Amino acid sequence: MPTTNTEFTESKVVNEFRRSNGDAVRIGTREFKGRKYFEIRQWFQDNKSQKMIPTKKGIILNINELPTLMSGLCEVAEGAGVSVDNKAKS
Questions:
Q1: Which domain range does residue 59 map to?
Q2: Does residue 34 contact residue 57 with C-beta atoms inside 8 Å?
């Protein structure tokens, strides 16, 4: 597994939502040595540059692990009584 994000291709953001503190959570895909990965990462806005900067708070997993993660998230949502619409975007 790569040691730094600079070894990955630039992330293609497919969804983003804002948290109450103004930070964003971005969901995207990346590649490394021909392998595909997906990423869920928290970003914050730099006060000086106004640019969004990634934090260390996040996870990168092989794209093949996505079905297992989604299944687990659906179970968590169901257990919490949260309705999931997989086509909803915020």
A1: 5-79
A2: no
